[in-house]
Batch of 4 targets.
Target 1
Amino acid sequence: MPTLLRGALLAMLLLPALGQAALARAQLETFERQLWRISTDHHMLALMDGDQGYGQSLNKTASTAATTLSALSGTAGDEDEQALVADLEAQWARLDPTGEGQPARFDEVPARVAERLDAFEGGQSGDYDDVQRLITDLQRLTATYTGIVAGGDADQDAFRAELDAFEQRLKRAQAAHRGNAPLQEALEQSRLKWEFVRGSLVKFGDDAVPFLVYRYSQRMSDNLDAAITPAD
């Protein structure tokens, strides 16, 4: 009887926890960077004269982002998380990446989602949240760069400052994960690629090389993502 009583009391104590936050910061980072990737592909379509390789990439990422958002909706726990997901769903509907609409939405929606996520203080943390943020920042920088080259009006001086900030975050991530050999290798490879492509990220005129920035950005992102994703 005492054992049964303790079990019942434990169950009662656990009940409130069932309604607590269920979203992971990693999920939110994934959705944000998928939006930035869609933005980049949109700009690359224009810059590369409608090269449908970028169109296919956009459609693929849009499909994956829809799946990510559906998963967020299914795991949102408390009222704050449900309100957050409702806002993300509204922004996603506005983006409608494969539909018709104002081209500016490809820049505006990811930026608004980023602001909303920055203001959200909940979500479960993970061991690699700093690397998740690093990948998201890289996708955001790539989208901003291709947007500028495509004729956008983003502040170029502010963008240059963000490049320096990214470099510092990369160094901090390397220092924080020295004990993880696969991740350390991926971070070091990212550092080398970053050093190579960094100079290209401040070329906005006739000397711009968006295809090079695009290629290296995706390689860095894919390598880092693979290093923090558990093997099947």
Target 2
Amino acid sequence: MSRSLFAKSKKQKPVSVACVCTVDSHSVTAAAVKVWSGQGAIHAPVVIFSAQKKVQGDKLSDVIHPLREILEMVRSHGGNPDLISCVIGEPWIATIPRTIKIEKAESFKLTQKTVDDALLRDMRASEADIRRDVADPDAIAIVDVSDPIWSVNGYRTDNVIGSVIPSLELDRSVSIMPGDVLDEIGLAISEVFHREDIIFHSAHHAFANYIANEKALSLRVGGVSSEWSVIDRGVISAVQPIPAGLVEIEEVLKHEFSIPKTLIESTMSFATDEGLALHEKDVYYRRIERAASGWLHAVRSSLEEIRKKADLLPRTLVLSSDAPWILALAPVIARELDMAVAVLSSDYIGNDVVFSHDARAKTNALGIAIEYSIKRMNS
């Protein structure tokens, strides 16, 4: 199996079918997507078929079986794809900010070669830093690297190739994951489609691409863990993991409301029902707050940690999760942290993605993954 970050597929046709899948500890999704390849493609990608399965358990083996199932469903509807993209999320992905400085004794004319050489040196340095304390060089795999953002004299700027400048800073982020996890997920995909040229991406970078034109504080709530990140123009500048997620909250909600886990989503929907009286909503929110108190404590503590890593945090945070009931948690988080909370809806499906009537799964993870995968494919 190829682990190359820049693995190339077979020669792309003007119209191709791609398989895009997402893998994290809460759910797996997959889609057969009709795409028009190449720069300047004018057609939006069309999802021929999509499916989602919730992960029942917190081990990698609990992910592989449902992943195989939905990939078989995608193959039966879309055939063998021309391209395969897999976007990996928590808890297996970690993202590291990198700053690259280009400076000389005097002002100099910046060339593309100077930038390319600096980026290549940093990639080699990143690999050395990541693997320095690891006995097996294959234990950690680099799966995604963001495009850099440019700064001259501390000010963000566009491409300044050909300009005379005193110095240049390039900020980007690198996503890594355990090599054995990447291999096992890749093996499951390749056994379904009988090919190994799978392109892996990071859910962190896919989400950063979604809010590429803004500076944002993101709180992503996953299955067994959550994560703060500060995103600036598509680059992750600071990250702070939170060792608790949906699994922990759902377990307490189950006891708080005396319901099975299968009824959590419908029960939580009452809290956001516009027809519910304010005092009744308040009762729901108080119970949700009690159920999430342990998770909220971890969120608050980790927020203090990320404050130390970032110069200035945005006052609005973007809350996202594939659990539809996360909307009910937003007022609780806003009150706990004294911050405005914007919720990325669980059924967000991408600005430029068209879903056919056979597309069963329409989740934010899948919509964002498709947008990011197609952008990377055409870059």
Target 3
Amino acid sequence: MDYKQLLWEILNEKECTIDEIKGLDSIYKNIKFYRDKNYRLRFEMTAEFNDYIECTKYFNSDSSENIPGKPIKDYIELTAHCEVPLNKYITNSVLVHNSNSKGKKITLSGELFKLHSYYDFEDYRKEAEFTVFLFLNHDKNFPYSRPLLIDYSSNAQIQIHGFSSNNSILSSGSKSSFNSFVGNIDGAEFAIGYVEKEITNNYYGTYVRFNSVDETNHKYLESIIELFSFITGKSYVPIGHTTFNKLYSPVEKHYVSSFRDDIDNIINKLGYYPIPITISDIHSRRINIENLFSCLLSAYHKYKNEFNLQEVMWYISLSNLVPLDMQMQPLSTALDILKNSWFSSEKSICKGKNLNDDSYKSIISKHIVNLKADIQNDAIINRILRANQIGSNERTTVFLQELGLTTGDVEKIVLRERNKVIHGFSGQRDYQQLHIRTMAYKTLINRIILKILGYNDLYIDYSTYGYPSRKMEEVLGGPYNDQQI
């Protein structure tokens, strides 16, 4: 077995034999699966005819959608197999893009949304012991705490015919690097590490490994990669997972299309850590990165649904990938989600209301009949009934106060800037100022999330040149650390 399969996906690009196909007449006998440069799953299937005339007749005929070689629908289901290694392939998400004819062959090509392959021996698959989930992108600067050691060796047999036979293991080198760490969630251990280009043969990658095949791993995986994305300031694109047996052989693989056309953009984006965790920070402050990540993960998983953190993380990731002019919009949406979730949670004192609902209803019920008779305008009456709701701008202030997050002049300015950006802006933009204020807004969002997760140590202030670390109770400093921005 190629050891690289333990760390990264190896997609068999050999031609496979089609066993069964739905949505397409069965003249196609062979199919090949591959990934393009953006890691989208692709396929090519071919049909071969006895001569050029027969091939041209099938290819050019359009009298019926059921003409052999013509797709009946865009989505095609098929099963195929490969002899070496003995794998079965299943997909129900083939999207036909184009077909062409050359000589005696018709080639149909398109995109796969997902692909499932497994070793064609059921007892072998029952021995599955661990799962590795794979993602495009990496953060090489993260303070990984554990080394990955790869020992290269081979077997040699030395024989003297009719006299002796000896086996020997020959070492041909080894490689070790700190590129992984281990975490824990609800008692389930996992490892995260990055994968070098020499193994992926393309982009750097990241893996998450569980030493089990428990279905709950998928539930934990979402929280793990979402938090890791937040901590490293990077977006990680899932491309599938592989299940291995106790002999470290892959028994089942699930491939997923990246669905992206901008992988280079995602890979090349700088990551902004919300907290200071460089290697020098870890050593100088004696931080155990594995304990820190596990504690944050436990809180993230606990509050994920209550505060819609998955959606929040998606908007933060989106902000990192769009042009500067648009970066504040998704951050603003993330703040709105956090704010509304807070007021809907048990943690909120006022629930986003000036008075509690029972008190307000008791007061308004004394006057509502007369008001309806005098005003006779449903729109105005509805406004009166909703008047107990705290106003939009005030809601942000109350939210930050209830959360216990101190704010200063910089926070107030960037929240006003948010309104200008969201509701439109005409005139010449000052991009330097917009960049600084966007970074300040990003820092405010980071502080809010960290506070929700119960983190009370240092954060990084991206509103100040040099990106200093501050205590959580300290407000943003602004570019020159003078509360101006």
Target 4
Amino acid sequence: MRRAWVVGLILGLGWIEEARAQHEAVPAPPPPAPPVAPPPERSRSQWGIGPAHAAVLPLAGSRSEGTAEPGLALEWARIKPLSARTDVSFRMAWGLTTWDRFRRWSRAAYGVGAWTTEAYRDVYGWMGPRSPAQEVHQAPGEPRKDSDPTRPFRIVGGSMAMVFLSLGYVTSGFLYAASLVAPSTWVEIDGAVHYNLGDKDWAPYLKGGLGALAFLHPRHGSLVGGIGPHFGGGVRVGSYLHLGLSATWSPPYLHGEFQDGRTHLLVSSLTLGTQD
């Protein structure tokens, strides 16, 4: 009896050891992978075009002339995300509101071209044969004389004149090209921090920062520089569409003045465009 009990104990210990060995042979499951953070949103560029407004607001008693003119603005911006709710942007804008300057330059271009065309017509007529009233009359029976001995010289002189007259068309073309940028009123560079109020597909935002202006007065023709607060907002729709409102205000003493005046400069734009 005792021998059977010893044999059973030995067999039981063997089974326990075999079960423990099999348990140790099974590898433990790997630990769960840490959560993968979403990739950071990449920087993006924006282009836009839309209506603009430029105003010079003189203080009481200022010698500067006030203006308020509508026009067109073109802009480009580079935006870098800082977090899920904040971005930082660098923006460049070009405002064209001085349309009277465009009319003056385009009229000058047309005048130079019209004068050159009329001058070509006159020179061509001068190079041609003389009219019957200018013919040299001769008696019947006399040997035929050359009725226009000066024509070869007029052809040479007229050809040289036409070469120089072509400069008129070159000048006219230059004035036409310059008239496209003649309405320029301001160029702006600004930096701002954006606060996003929505998600990726519908993302309204507000922004604020600092802007620097180069401003050409529509009346005085004086070019001044200035700085001031930049503010605005907008909305990004999906991955491609963007609507933005931007304004920069340069108060007195933060920009050059016109004719020793004291003025506020205010430029603004509402642009619609794309983003990549």
